[in-house]
Amino acid sequence: MGDTEGCAEEIMPSSGHRLRDVEHHPLLAENDSYDSSSSSSSEADMADRVWFIRDGCGMICAVMTWLLVVYADFVVTFVMLLPSKDFWYSVVNGVLFNCLAVLALSSHLRTMLTDPGAVPKGNATKEYMESLQLKPGEVIYKCPKCCCIKPERAHHCSICKRCIRKMDHHCPWVNNCVGEKNQRFFVLFTMYIALSSVHALILCGLQFVSCVRGQWTECSDFSPPVTVILLIFLCLESLLFFTFTAVMFGTQIHSICNDETEIERLKSEKPTWERRLRWEGMRSVFGGPPSLLWMNPFVGFRFGQLQTRPKKGGPEFSV
Fold first, then answer.
1. What whole-number distance in Å separates Cα of residue 140 and Cα of residue 238?
2. What is d(CA 124, CA 27) in angstroms, rounded to the nearest whole number?
3. What residues form the membrane-spanning segments (predicted)?
4. pTM for the whole thing?
5. According to the model, what pLDDT value does residue 31 have?
6. Fewer beta carbons within 10 angstroms: which end of the chain, N or C?
7. For residues 108 and 105, what is the distance between their CA atoms, to the nearest angstrom?
């Protein structure tokens, strides 16, 4: 995973206290053809669109994630459970593992296809600045890379080519930034992958014990050498997945409870905002009081029609 942030520049007085020595540039270059009237409408329509980053490395990592989960499901279902003589053992574990896999992949999709909190491009216009009704002495910042007014706690991602509100980091495994609007789905993704990895490890252990005690030719429909190779690879995959996602899940929960993104923690930024600690932070990310809905990656999902965004919108598709 990599975090990328562009430098902001002071453009005119705003409410922030982030006084820095920065270069002064015009709000928009003379050759920019940004239509200020479309800024509010594009931001309003963003919630109804699916975000997709066209990054080669990220797309490869995302496809690899899906293939590894599908491989684990194949081994668990066809190598371990279907050949089992215990009907209820196969049914219970099959339903449980496949539910975890579906929830994990659904969370992955929601993380990848949800706008993480991108600031509208090119909104740093004189008309927009005048509409802010700034007080004398106030300071705001403009990102020179995407020509937008940079909100507090926003950072520029060079891969998404956008400023992202409360950007935590850019994760190639979900081919997206983890930010204000999709952090809950990323947390669910890491949790469900960790749980399915533990479940797969337990099933692998029970399968090895069953095969050693009985006949290898009877404990699986595959030949003994193929069965051993498939189980060993699944064990290694599950161990690596569990280690990685469990650590990420823990750091994400810690960040949410302390209302501090990973970028802010690494840069040791002093908070200029009112922190939402512990359960207040959890409610702000997951929405509403604690409930089973927090565990549901399908909340708020709506279908749309695939369309390509204009080039000026950045390296993403919208749906």
1. 47
2. 6
3. 56-81, 87-105, 185-208, 228-249
4. 0.79
5. 35
6. N
7. 5
Please tell me the distance from the alpha carbon of residue 176 to that of residue 156, in angstroms, as a whole number. 13
Strand, helix or coil for residue 112: helix
- What does the alpha-carbon distance between residue 232 and residue 225 come to, in Å, rounded to a whole number? 11
**Mapping DSSP to helix (H, G, I), strand (E, B) and coil, where does residue 313 land?**
helix
What is the tens place of the pLDDT at every residue in 47-95? 456 689 999 999 999 999 999 999 999 999 999 999 888 899 999 999 9
* Percentage of residues of the chain with pLDDT beyond 70: 76
Q: Comparing C-alpha atoms, which of 242, 285, 289 is closest to residue 260? A: 285
The pLDDT value recorded for residue 149 is 82
What pLDDT shows up at residue 244? 95
pLDDT at 319 exceeding the cut of 70: no
- Paired tokens of 36: 């200020």
Residue at 65: amino acid letter: T
148 in catalytic set: no
Give the CA distances from residue 150 to residues 6, 142, 165, 166, in Å, rounded to whole numbers and listed in that order: 11, 5, 9, 11
SS3 302: coil
The per-residue pLDDT for 24 is 34
Q: Active-site residue among 146, 148, 160, 171?
A: 171
H/E segment holding residue 155 = strand 154-157
Q: State how far Cα 303 lies from the chain centre.
A: 19
Check: CB of residue 69 under 8 Å from CB of residue 104: yes
